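Q: What does the assembled structure look like for these inputs?
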Amino acid sequence: MFFALEHTDKNTSARIGKLILPHGEVLTPVFMPVGTQGSVKALSHEDLETLGAEIILCNAYHLYLRPGPEVIKKAGGLHKFIGWDKPILTDSGGFQVFSLAHLNKVNDEGVIFQSHIDGSRHNLTPEDMIRFQMILGADIIMSFDECLPYPSKYEDAEKSVIRTIKWAERGYRCWKEEGGESTSDLFGIVQGGVYEDLRERCVQSLCAIDFPGYAIGGVSVDEPDEEKKRIISFTTPLLPEDKPRYLMGVGSPEDLLFGVYCGIDMFDCVMPTRNARNGCLFTSRGRVNIRNAKYVKDFTPLDEDCNCPVCKRYTKAYLSHLYRAKEISALRLNTIHNIYFMFSLCKLVRKAIKEDRFLDFYNNFLNEYNIKPFSEGDSEIGSTFFNF
Amino acid sequence: MFFALEHTDKNTSARIGKLILPHGEVLTPVFMPVGTQGSVKALSHEDLETLGAEIILCNAYHLYLRPGPEVIKKAGGLHKFIGWDKPILTDSGGFQVFSLAHLNKVNDEGVIFQSHIDGSRHNLTPEDMIRFQMILGADIIMSFDECLPYPSKYEDAEKSVIRTIKWAERGYRCWKEEGGESTSDLFGIVQGGVYEDLRERCVQSLCAIDFPGYAIGGVSVDEPDEEKKRIISFTTPLLPEDKPRYLMGVGSPEDLLFGVYCGIDMFDCVMPTRNARNGCLFTSRGRVNIRNAKYVKDFTPLDEDCNCPVCKRYTKAYLSHLYRAKEISALRLNTIHNIYFMFSLCKLVRKAIKEDRFLDFYNNFLNEYNIKPFSEGDSEIGSTFFNF
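A:
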């Protein structure tokens, strides 16, 4: 059995379960730290293990370009190449091809693009990206999809959904025929922008293929918060109940909770790690921007209620000093804290669901967290002090 | 007792001993990692503890400018401010005032300079730097000295030695009168450039003051290797046998061994950490430049004989990938390895001295290490991929 759904909350669609994967088990709802290039930025694998990571996400697009299939094949797969023996999910690279690469051509056959690293030209089909993910040997691999920006016209979104479905079918066939099933589970990705009928059509077509799991893609692409929520709460219940559901690229603590509320099991997002590197830290009382001058002489921990190694040892004054002095360790300590926060949040979420009190937990969290919701500025896109 | 000399090697001047300091004991010969701004670059204190660090060096010049005396005083001293409870040695800032700051005026009274950070103007006397180090509360503090560049004329070096001696006297008096003795040990710093008679004169004057320990400063300032060795081997035996001897800013593995050979007990240098950040790694078979293309597909550890956490888990191919992908963790993993190498070297050195076979150890090490001494380029000053 690949996914064991264990309990659904009495008052919401929130659910707990377990993914049983070749490299280990993963309790859901789970937040998967993003290790785009085979490394969660600023952390070592030891850090992740200490923090309790059960699965990380890597990106096929980046790894395809560097170090490339040959090196990873020679290493014996991604797990061996990076020295991480717990589960890995690889994203297919659809999102990155459309957001990072210089795109030369997209048609039903596949994509032609130029690397964002060195401008080299690549011609990839959906089958290529499945095959490459099979070389990587991740526990969960993703269909190659077309991800449109927001806003997109209905006609464009429709064409893109049709193409995404076709690519999903081709990828699935390749995965089946070439023995991918023996080492990995392949997820289909639901696209359709903000258009509910397109989302529904995409879900139906993907379900007809019968993937081991399903992801919702194309959200958190700069659409307004209400649109995002509308699409998540519309799409999630359409997905099969007995399969894992993954909301791609989400998110902030509050977005993660909303996803859980709707019945999502898996999340990934660069925000906790990227925010950390920009000095924006999650606490039980809301966000703290460690660059703020008032922390220079604040000799208390970041979050009195936090048991992470950073809060247990260091003060805001020291973290502020490290950031101002541009010390590399600022990036790592901040990241450790934010990742601990996300893991700890998921742990509390799972407990609350188990005890049928997720709704209370959700409301309480938002109340506490929103004491200063964005009061110090969401620096996700802000200053990149370190150019990372 | 502050310094316990335990054994001197039968065939060389190499010696082992123990520093007994307010925050703990330190076995010598010791390599002290440099945490200029209160953080060893790319490492956390937990990393240092895991690696076995017994003492770190911080820099009074940097900490004076940022976060400044007020913040550190409020925090309750440097140990509390940075969250490190083992011994700390603070450098007085003499070297930095002369190398980093924009110098406006030096006279017998003190220095007037502008901060390298924000251009702010500062006027400091030798007493000020002793008082600030007393606020920091380091276990070992250093006299404020004038450090000349190489080459310097005899007349300039002589003037500078006379001033350094005067400043050492004033600093010592201040330290005694204001109760510094109860929390710290003050070292005198021998200057004199490459001139043996000036070095001797400086040693004699400092010994007359009777410091708890002595440092040799003004070496490793770009003088030729032979000059450096000549001055170290000339000056070290002039220093009192029963006091700790500290060779400032040295150095590479081979320079450290030369210092030990001459009877030095303490070393510090940014080279192991800075080289690490530039991809230049120490191994028992010489230096490895991880940027070299041949490591892209090298799936062996950096050093087969090394027991550090990096060599135990990661391959050269992965370290090469992290470096090429500009992952922050490359900086930390490389630094962990180089610091482990230095600590491990000191441990082997202490064992060899204890067993009266330091000379054999020294020769064997150089033979092994010099298989490719600088074959891949000393990148200390080279590429700064990460701008750190």
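The mean pLDDT of chain A is 94.
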